Amino acid sequence: MSLKFTKMHGAGNDFVVLDGVRQSVALSPEQIRYIADRHFGIGCDQVLLVEKTQRDEADFRYRIFNADGGEVEQCGNGARCFVRFVHDQNLTSKREIVVETKSGLISPRLEEDGRITVNMGLPIFDPAQIPFVSDSTEVIQPLQVGNESVQITVVSMGNPHAVQVVDDVETAPVATQGPFIEIHPRFPKRVNVGYMQVVDREHIRLRVYERGAGETLSCGTGACAAVVAGIRRKLLDNTVHVATRGGTLSITWAGERSPVMMTGPAITVFEGEINL
Ligand SMILES: N[C@H](CCC[C@H](N)C(=O)O)C(=O)O
């Protein structure tokens, strides 16, 4: 079977995007891992599958698969690439679209200047709603990692995040500690691990060891989660520029019961066809 694909990235977080509207796509976890493999396949952090939706209030469905083959609830950088894709492929002419995802509806918008803004929905930090992420109502929670205790703030953007504040992202233990927190027994669905350096109240630097993908150059939901965590820790104002290794995302959160708004780039790199 051959499958047309589009290779894209959002601030260096890269994707293989598949059109499941005009071609029938049903992939096993092994096939996802093959597509994502940077030596034997195409190579990407996540595979994004665009499909028709059954929900009247939505325009499309958008499914997200990590490089390890697992399907997950949400992907922020992917949402921007998704809206660029459906426009470039003439699948819609609407500038603001409503998209069904595994964790609910999001609404990305293609701005006049080409930038893309996504309403990422409400962050969740109530332990009653996300027992697989949080076990306390405290903003800062201790987590024992090996023989050290770290302080995390947990946030769900549909997908789970554990965020730490560090003095310098360049020396943060992303590669050595991130993998242990990702699979920590405290997180039965595993977790994305964020390391945030606060530059000032409107600027942070961020690195994320992503669940199912490892460290990526950028993580959209991770940027949302870090800003929400920083605001809840009273370290940040409502609009924050998030510098990641792959580019800058702008995040706005007006506080409790407000959605998180994310603005950033979405780039198409090449198109191709893969034999599966
Ligand atoms: N690794 C994430 C999915 C991709 C999220 C990230 N690439 C983004 O831009 O939000 C998870 O397992 O929840």
UniProtKB/TrEMBL annotation:
Arranged from A to Z, the UniProt key words for this protein are: Amino-acid biosynthesis, Cytoplasm, Isomerase, Lysine biosynthesis
Q: What's the name of the protein?
A: Diaminopimelate epimerase
Assembly, in brief, is: Homodimer.
Give the active-site positions: C75 (proton donor), C75, C219 (proton acceptor)
Q: Which gene encodes it?
A: dapF
Which Pfam families did the record assign?
DAP_epimerase
Native source organism of the sequence: Sideroxydans lithotrophicus (strain ES-1)
Q: What is the annotated role of this protein in its UniProt record?
A: Catalyzes the stereoinversion of LL-2,6-diaminopimelate (L,L-DAP) to meso-diaminopimelate (meso-DAP), a precursor of L-lysine and an essential component of the bacterial peptidoglycan.
Involved pathway(s): Amino-acid biosynthesis; L-lysine biosynthesis via DAP pathway; DL-2,6-diaminopimelate from LL-2,6-diaminopimelate: step 1/1
EC numbers for this chain = 5.1.1.7
Where can this protein be found? Cytoplasm
